Each structure stands twice: as C-alpha cells, then as structure tokens.
Amino acid sequence: MSLPKGGRQRSADMVGRSRKRRGATHHGGQSELKVSCSGSQKKRKPSPCGFLDKMRAKLSGGHFRMINEKLYTCTGKEALNYFKEDPTLFDMYHTGYQSQMSQWPEQPVSKIIKWLKDHSTSLVVADFGCGDARLAKSVKNKVFSFDLVSNDPSVIACDMSNTCLESSVVDVAVFSLSLMGINYPSYLTEAHRILKPAGWLLIAEVKSRLDPKTGGADPDRFIKAVCELGFKSEVKDYSNKMFVLLYFKKKEKSSSMKREIQWPELKACLYKRR
Ligand code: SAH
C-alpha cells in the first residue's frame, strides 16, 4: 500500500503554515515587546526563552492534533507505513498525547493496571497499542506490548491486526484508548485469536466515541458486535467522565455459525486546541 498521501500532504501544509505562523508570531513577539517597553525594561521584557518555548509548545500541539487525526482516519497498515517513513512523528504524537493525558483526572491505563494487580500475576497479557508501555512497566505479569513503533526493547513494533503470537496464548488482551484505525474490528479479531478460551478482553475508550449524545456510536451496538465475535460482556462502566470501560470474556467455545458482524463506526477523537 502506498504511503497515505493525505497525511503527507497535510504534514507538508502544516509545516508551511507553521513557518508562516512562526513569522506572524515573530511580529506578535515584537508588538508584545513594544507594549512592554512602555514600562520598566526589567519587569516587562518577555524572556525570549519563554516566548520560544510557548511557540514550540503551540507547534508541537498542532503536530500532535494532525498525527492524531491521521491515526483515527486511516488503516493500521497505513499508520504503520506513516511512522516507518518518519519515526520522529511517533515521538511527537506521544509528547502531545501525554500532555493531553496529564489534564485527565484519571487515566484509563491506571484502571487497567489496578485490575491486573487485583488478579493473578500469572496471567499473560497482550497490550494492544501500548504507547510508552506503562502497563508492562507497572505489573509483574508477562506482558507482550505492541505498538506501531518500538522505542523500547520490550515493545514489539507491528500493526496490531497482525501480531506475531500463536493462537490461544494470552489470558488478557488490553486496548487502552487504542481502537484508532478505521479497521478497528480487525484488532479485536486478532485479540480474539490470541486469547485463550475464557480469556479477558479489557477495552477503555474515549467516552464521546461511545456516546450517542455527543455523536458517538451506540455502546450497545458496539458491545453486541464484540459479543458476536465470540465474547460475553462482563463489565460496562460508564462512571468516568472521560472514558468508558468495557470488559469481556472470550467464550469457551466459538460458534460455528459465522454471520457478518455489523460493527458501528467509531468516530475520530479529536483533541481541542489548548
Ligand atoms: N495504551 C496507551 C497508549 C494509548 S495511545 C495508554 O493508554 O496510554 C494509542 C496507541 O495505539 C498509540 O501509541 C498508537 O500508536 C497505537 N496504535 C494505533 N493503531 C495501532 C495499530 N494498528 N497497531 C499498533 N498500535 C497502534
């Protein structure tokens, strides 16, 4: 598959705009300086470092939002190629992601870490879309961490619709805010394949994606589709303002009747400019 052109195009546009913006903000900086010159130099002159830091933060916020939108609107395979072309985009994405997450009162990955700590450490875990692999670093379990780019020897770089694991080898499959690609059902199908019978599927998703009031999908339709894949719904937790937790167990026996599953579309989660 060719490189996602939209992303490249937008990327180039973005840099162009950023350069222009940098020019504009330079003027802005000067005018700020002018205003500040009317009083005591020492007090009012903005620190050039502070100003540049602010600009850098704005630019990196813009890049984060662009990459984030890309990941939600392409397939996993395209996303893998996107980062292969320029792995620095992955770091850019995660800097922005961490900055967004730091605003959330509680992070879903913490909930999942707590769940794992309340269960046996002998459970083998697969963390789909592990990011900085915080989950693996926080528990004693054997964890296979998958993401599009590996910045850590413990992370396996792949498109998670196609992991390197044998069938029926893990006890827990985790998706913490990682059902991003337009082909997200293929990630859940892969999780079903590598899970042992009665294994756990733990999903944490951004609330607005599964809330019809905010234009999101009907969570019951999503749950029904996951059950048709071969799971039983065990936990539905809508109590958090930012994310929902949906836990499932893989059925002991898979149905021989293979019907086409009606997966709801999950809209992109776009972060606001701060
Ligand atoms: N689970 C972590 C990170 C969430 S960010 C946490 O809760 O903090 C979502 C992650 O999913 C990103 O790191 C992104 O690269 C990864 N991801 C998205 N699509 C993927 C795919 N097809 N294959 C592997 N990783 C993917």
TrEMBL record:
Protein name per UniProt: Ribosomal RNA-processing protein 8
Organism: Trapa natans
GO cellular component, one term: nucleolus
Functional description taken from the UniProt entry: Probable methyltransferase required to silence rDNA.
UniProt-annotated location(s): Nucleus, Nucleolus
A Pfam entry, by short name: Methyltransf_8
PANTHER family: RIBOSOMAL RNA-PROCESSING PROTEIN 8
Biological processes per GO annotation: chromatin organization; methylation; rRNA processing
Family: Belongs to the methyltransferase superfamily. RRP8 family.
UniProt region (Disordered), positions on chain: 1-51
UniProt keyword terms in alphabetical order: Chromatin regulator, Methyltransferase, Nucleus, Repressor, rRNA processing, S-adenosyl-L-methionine, Transcription, Transcription regulation, Transferase
